[in-house]
Amino acid sequence: MIQTNPAPMARAHYRPRAGLFAAVSNLFSSVWLGVFWAVLLFIYCSIGSALPAVRQLPALEMTEFEWFHWWPFNVLMVLLCTTLIVVTVRRIPLRLVNAGVWMIHTGIITLCIGSFYYFGTKVEGDAPVFRRRLKIEMPGLSNPETLLAVAGNRTSVAVGSDVWRIEVQDTNSDWPILSDEHKGEKAYAVNVMVTPPTGEPFIRQLLAGYPQYTEDVIPGKGRAVKSVGRKLMDENLQLSLDYEPQEYFHVMDTWALFVRRVGETEWAQRPIEGLPRYNDRIGSRDQVFTEPHDPLPLRSIDLPVAPSQAGDALGPLPVRITGFLQYAQMDHRWHDGGNRVNPLLQVSLLSEDARAQSYEMVAFDPAHSQAADGNVQFVWLSDSSKLDTLPTDSRALLHIAVPQANVSLDVPITPQLLQSPPTPIEGTEFSYRLLDLHDNLSLPGRDKPVSIAVVEVQTPQGSFRRWVADQPEHTRDLHGEGSDPHAVDAREADVRIQMTYQPGSPPLIFAGHPGGLHFVFNGPKGRMIERDVKPGETIEIIPGVSVKVDSFLTHAVAEEKPYIIPPASRQRNAAESFAMIRLEVESGQGVQSKWVPFNQYVFPDAQYAYGGRFTYTPENFRLADGSAVEVVFSRQRLKLPNPIAMEDFELDTHIGGYTGSVSTIMNYVSRLRFLDNGKWTDPQPIAVNHPTEYGGYWYFQASWDRPPQSDPTAGMNYTGLGIGNRHGVYVQLAGCCISVAGMIFAFYVKPVIKRRRHEQSRARISQGRGEVPNDTSATAVAETVRL
Amino acid sequence: MTSRFRVRAIDVMVVAAMLAYGVYRAGDRPPRTDEGPSPFAQQVRLDPLYKTAVQADGRLRSFESHAKTYMGMVSGSRSIRGQSNGLTYLDLMFRPESYADTDLIFVKNKEVRVQILDALKGRPDIDPVRRDVIFKSGLFPRKLMTQPEVAALLQKLGKDLIRTSKVVDAINQALGVSDPRFLLENLRLIPPPSGELSTPWRPMSDVTATRAAPQDSVHGGMAMPAAGIPGLDNELQKNLSAAWSALQTAWRAQEASAVNDQIAKLSSLLPTVVPQLYPAEGRLGMESWYFRYQSMTWVWLIYLASVMPLLMSIIYKWDRARTIGMVLFVIAFSAHTASVAIRWYISGRWPNSNMFEAVTTSAWFGGVMAMILERLTRRTPFRNVFALGSAVISMAALMAAYYLPAQLDSAINNKMAALNDIWLYIHTNMIIWSYAVIGLACVPALLLLRDRWCLAWDQGAIPKLRLLILPVAIGILNYTAYLLLMHLIDHTGFGLSGRSLFGVTGAFWGALMIVLLEALSARGRMLSGGTVERSATGGASSLILGGSSGSSFLRQEKPTAGQVFDGATMVLVELSFIMLWTGLVMGAIWADHSWGRPWGWDPKEVFALNTFIIFLVLIHVRLKVRDKAFWTAILAVVGFEVMMFNWIVVNFVISGLHSYA
Questions:
Q1: A382: closest CA among A343, A325, A337?
Q2: What is the ipTM metric for this complex?
Q3: Considering the domain boundaries, does residue A654 fall inside one?
Q4: Rounded to two decimals, what is the model's pTM?
C-alpha cells in the first residue's frame, strides 16, 4: 500500500549533520520548533491585542504599533523565518509535488521581508486642510491681510486712523447660485460682516470660484444693488477668497515641542523622544489636583528636549520635561487671602425632586456674576448702606411718561399683557399695546447687551411701533408696514410719549459687602425675603426649594493646577487629546515651570481652533531679555513635498439628506489641489475608499468638519486627511499571492498529480508484467511517486 | 444491530447539559403577566399601512420596519402588551398617557436594572413580585424612569464613561424615542413635492394646521411658520389632513372600525403624493412581512428538526433518518436562503453590514459550502457530515439572532460609507465564509472526539468514572476560561465580584488540573494505544485520491467513523485555511487603499490572524504526530473557539475598527 503520509519520506531526505553550525542547523530544521514559534506568536499577539494593560505598563509604555515592532517580536519573526527557510531547504525536496509547500513558505518569507521594509519605513500622519481664507486689500494697506474663512473669525484693518472691522459671519457649503448662466449650481459662500469707520455696517457675500458674484447686503435692507444701486458699498475694500494651503502633516504617535518668539509666525520644532504615553509622571502631589482617594503613584521624569533646527527661539537654554499627565485638564480652585477684593460666592440650589445644583459666582466678572439660568445673581457693594439700591421687584417693567399730561406710570409686564388689546393711557390720547420682548440682545459693535420691548403706540395721528430699549438712546420708532425694524423707516422716538423698558432682574440676589453677605428674594409679589446669611446656612425660598451658601470669599485667589480626571470619567477614544506636560525652562534668571496642554496640531494662530473643533493653547515663557517665547506641545510634523489646498468638499447623502446621523451619509469627497512647481494641479477627488497618491505620499479621507445639528449647511470648512507612505506593499502583496497559490496547489493540485502518477505507474507495471501489482510492485510505485 | 441505538453516557451528558442550560435561561424569562392585546388592538387592521413608506435614517422603509426600529430602541425588541410594533408605535403616539405605567423602557444591563430597582426601594408599587418581573424582563415603566431618585442615579451612572454611560445613553434614547412628539416628528410619511432625493420627507404634523405656538412672553411675538407643505396639491393636503385628524380622533376614542377606515384612506392617499419617489409596494409589503415574522430567524427550528435525523444517520447509520434529515436540511437551507434574499432585496445591498447580518449570512455561507460538498461527496462515506455541520451552525446562529435581539439587532440600516468598496465586500464575505467553514469543521471534530470517548469506554482502558469526569471538566474549563478572560479584559461590564471571582478561578484551575492529568495519563493508553486509528490521509486529498487510488480509505468497503470524521474535518480545515488567509490578504488590500495601512494591529485583525495561526499549527502538528485524527480534532475545536472569541469578545468587549464580523 502506498504511504501517502509525507513525513517518513521527508525524513528519508533529511539527514542530521554534525558540528556546531550543523547543530544549529539541525535545531532549526525541526518542524516542532516552527510550531513552537507559531504558538509563541499566538501568545504574543493575544497579549498585545486582548490585554492592552500589559503593553501600557509603566515599564513598557507602548502603543499597539510599538508592541508589534518591539525587538522580541522582531526576534520571534526572524526565528520563525529562519526555521521556515532551514526546514524548507533541508527537509522538503524541491519537486513538483512539493511546489505547494515551497510556494507557501516562500510567500510567507517574502511577506515578512516586505513587512520589515514596509513597517521600517512607514510614515503615517494626518493634517487638516482648510477650505478658504479671506484676503483683504485696500488702498493704503501695504500688505494684504488674511483671515481664515470660518464663522466667528474677526480682524481689524487700520489705514491711517480709520479702522475697518471685518468678521466672518457664517459660511454656507451649499449656496445655490441664482444668477444667469450659473443658475442651479452650488457654491461655498462666505458672508463677511464689515463695519466701516463711517456709515452703516454691511455684509459682503463671497462665493468661492465665482468672484464675479461678490456683492454686498445691508442688514434689513436687502441687496445693495437694490437699495443703493451698486453691488458694493465700498469699492475700495477688496475682499477675495484664497486657498489656505497646508504645508505640513503631523506624524501619529509622536511628541514634539514647537517654539517661537511671540509675534513671529514660524514654529521651530523640537522632537520629544522617550515621553511616556499611558502613565502619569509627576514629582509631587502638590503639582496637581486629584480626587482625595486617588492613590496616584509617584513616578518622576526629567527629560531634556533639545533643539533640532536653527532659529529656535529658546536656543541653548535648558528645556526639560518634568511631568506628564495622560488625561488632565487645567482647573482652578479658590482660597481666601488675596491682596485685593475679589468676591466669590458658591451656592447650591436644593429641591426635593431634583439633584442639588452647585454654582460659583464671581461678582467682578460680568460673565460669571449670574448663575442658574440667570435666576441667581451675586453683586458686591462697597458698603452695607448701599443695600437699598438692590432691586425690589424681579418683574420686568415698562415705564411710560407723557410729559404734556404729566402722566408717569410703571406697567409690570406679565404674560397676559403680551396678549391684551391696546390699553389707553388715562389722561392722554395715547394707547399702547405690548407686542414682544427681546432681552439681552448683543448688538454688533456694542459691548453692553440691549433689552428691547416692542410696543405698538396709537396716537391720534396714527399708530407706529416703538422698540423700547432699556438704554434710552437705543429706542426707535418704526413707521410703515411689517414687523421688521430694518425694512422700514426707523426714526428717533416721538418725544410726546416717553418709554423705558426695565427688563426683569434675577429673583435671588446675594449682595456681598465688607460686613458680610446679604440675601434678597424678589418673588412674583415683590420682595419676599431679605436677610443676612452666613456660609453653611440654608434658606428655604419657597416650600420645597432652598438655597445653601457653600462658601463666601471676599479676597478670593484662584489656584490653577491640572486636575487628573478619574479613569471612569475619561472618554475612551480620547487618545492623547487630554495629555499635558510640565515644562521647565531655565531662562538665565531662574527656572520657570508651566503645564503645557497637548494640541493635536500646531497652528499658526488661534483662528484655526475654530468652534472648539481643535485646541490651540500655547504657553508663554519669559526670557532674560524680557521677551516672551511661546511653546506648543504637539506631535512631530513633516513638511509635505507638495502643499495641499482644498477646492471643495462634498457630502453624498442617502434619501432624505443629511440629518446628523452617520447612516444618512453615503460618501465624503474632498477635491484637493497639489502645489507642484509653483502651480496648482487640477482638483483631485479623495473620497472614502478612494485615496490619491501624489509626490510619494498617499492621501486618504479621514475626518470632516461636521456641521452643527441646527444648520446642515454650516461646517465643512476643512477636511481631515490621512497621509502616509507605503513602501514595500507590493512585495507584501506578492508574498501573499504566492502563498495563496501554494495553498491551492498543496491542497488541491498535489493530490491530482499524485493520482495521475500513481495511475501511470500502475499502468506501466501492469503493462510490463501483465499482472496485477502485488506488494513488491507497490514499493516501486512508491518510488515513482516520490512524495 | 443492537449496538446501533445504544445510549451513550456522553450523549446523555451533553443533552443533559444543554437542557440544564435551556432551563437556566428560561428562568431568566419574565413570567407572563401581560393581559395581551386589548380588544381595540385586536380589531385594528394595520395591514394597509404595511405598504406605506417612511423616510428615516437615509432609507425609505415600510411602516412596520420603521416601527420595529424605533420600538427596538425603546423596548429592546420585546413585545409590549403582545402588540405588533406598528400598533405600539401608533398607540404610544396617540395615547401616550395610557403607557405611563406600562413596562416599556428596556434596560440591557442587569447590574443597572438592580441599581434602579434599589433606588426605587420603598415605593409601595415595587413589591418583590413586581421587582422580579421588572428585573427579568428588563422593562421599566416610563413613569418610574422619570422619578427623581432614578434620574439622579442615571445622572451618576452616566458619568462612568467606562462602564455605565452607554447603558444610560440607551435609556435616555429610549425615553426620547418613546416621547409622542418624537414619534410624530419622525413619522415622515409625505414625500417632498419637489421630488428631490436629498430633501427630507415631511411628517404628518406638517399638513395638519393646528400648530399654534404657546402664547406666552417667550413665544408671543414669534411669527408662526405657515401651516401645510408648500408645493403640495391643496386638495390632497386637505384630504391627508382630514384623514390624519380623523385617525387621531378615532384612535383616541378607541373606535376600531373608524381607525381602520382612516388607515385605509391614508395608505391609499400617500403613494399618490409624489408617485415617482414612492418605493414599490411589493418591496414595502415584503419588508413588513419580514419584520413581522422575526426576520425569519425561526428557521432555526427547521434546522433543529434536521439535526436530529442527521445525527441518527451519521452516528447510528440509520438510512431512513438520512433521507428525512437531508430533506429537512434542504428545506431549512432554502428558507434560510429566502431570508437572505429577502433581506438583500429590501435593503438594496448584500446583507453583510451589521452584526445580525454577519451572523446570519455567515451561517448561510456555511450552508452553501455544505450543499456544494454534499453534492461532491454524495457517493462517499462523507455524505451528510457537512449537512449536519451546517445544520448545527446555522441553527446556533439563527437561535442567537432569535433569542438575543438586543445584541443582534435585525433592523436594516444603510451601510457605512467606509464599507462601500468592492475589496471590502470580497474581504468581509470571504472572512465570514471562512468563519462558517471553521464552524462546520468543528462539528465532525467533536463527533470524532465523541467517537474516541466511546472507544475508550468500550475498551475499558480508562476507568469509567474518569471518563465521565473528563467531559465535565472540559466543559467547566471552557466556561471558566471564558469568564476569566472576560473579567481580565472587561472595560464595559461589571466584571466578576470578589467571591465569584474566587470560585471561578478555583473551578478553572481544578478543571485544568483534571484535564492535564487526564491528558498525561491517557497518552499511553487511549491516544496511542490499541484504540488509535491512523488516518493516513485526509482532507481534499482523500477525496481527490479516493476515486481510483488504492491509497485511500474511501476505497475501503467500510471506513471507520473516525476516519470519516477526520477526513471531513480536514476537508473543511483546508478550505477555511485558504479562505481565511485569502480573506485576511483581501482585508489588507482594502485597508491599504482605504486608509493607507494594510495591517494596523487592530484586535479584530490580530485575532483573525490568531485563528489562522491555530490552523497553521494544526497542519504542522498533523504532519508530525502519530495520532493525527485526535490532534486535528482538538486543534479544530480550539481554532473554532479562538474564532468565536474573535467574534463575540473582541466585537462586544474589545472595541476595534471593525464594527462587526
A1: A343
A2: 0.89
A3: no
A4: 0.83
